[in-house]
Amino acid sequence: MPSIRNTASDVPDMNLYKLNRVHRMLDKLKEKNKWEAEDTKSFDCMHYLGDSAIETAAKSLGLQAGERVLDIGSGFGGTGRYLYRHFDATTAGIELQKEIHDIAQTINEKSGAGANATSTNGNFLELDPAKMGAPFDHIVSFLCILHIPEREALFKKAHSVLKPRGKMYIEDFFARTSLDAKTLEVLRSSVSCPDLPDKEHYIAELDKAGFEVTDWVDMSTIWTDFVHERAEAYKKDPSIDADLTAFYDAVDEVFSGGQVGGTRITCQRK
């Protein structure tokens, strides 16, 4: 695969991260003292298939009450709050974008999660493990790794902040076939994804970093349907920002082309 370097500054330009719709929702909640999960559900889930994906992650990890989870690319913190409410686990989120981190912290405080679901603003590759709260029992990462070009460094650091035999659960894109120039252009310009490995290369990357892949679930067909239905639905909603619909259209395009797929990976530190 070609070596493409992408910088953190590219990520905020993605249409997904233009937050007009989020601020409109938050404005409606200003007078409410205690926020419930339903209050922010329309925007704080940034992965596919809603809460069922988090349930799958928890089951795959064998998550137990009291365990500590690191969420790489935690967004608005919805995953951590869900794991606290339903599994009594503590989650430390790492979020690169300052504005999204600030919103996550506000929701954490308003929802009463306290220290059980937190957000740290920064680049996972640069943060001190002690500041993150390492070591962790588990790591989760939903639709984040596709944006990070330094994959080898990422997986090595993930390995280093896990406890012995700790597990990692990933939901991510991968290349089902060779990516043509058009698909790569859409990924890079509209999705902030520099490139994608195929299944063999992905597993090899994890193995090299010290992980044993125990489960690889190909979600390509299900996700292709999901992103297409989402794109079509958002086009019909006049309240949705045009920037966001453009992003969803781009994701729909690369999946419907058959070259990009999705996976759920469970792996364990060797």
UniProtKB/TrEMBL annotation:
Keywords: Methyltransferase, Transferase
Keyword Methyltransferase on entry: yes
Keyword Ribonucleoprotein found: no
Gene3D superfamilies: Vaccinia Virus protein VP39
InterPro entries per record: Erg6_SMT_methyltransf, SAM-dependent_MTases_sf
GO biological process: methylation; sterol biosynthetic process
GO CC field: endoplasmic reticulum
One Pfam family per UniProt: Methyltransf_23
Sample GO molecular function, one term: sterol 24-C-methyltransferase activity
SUPFAM superfamilies: S-adenosyl-L-methionine-dependent methyltransferases (SSF53335)
Family the UniProt entry places it in: Belongs to the class I-like SAM-binding methyltransferase superfamily. Erg6/SMT family.
Protein name, UniProt field: Methyltransferase domain-containing protein
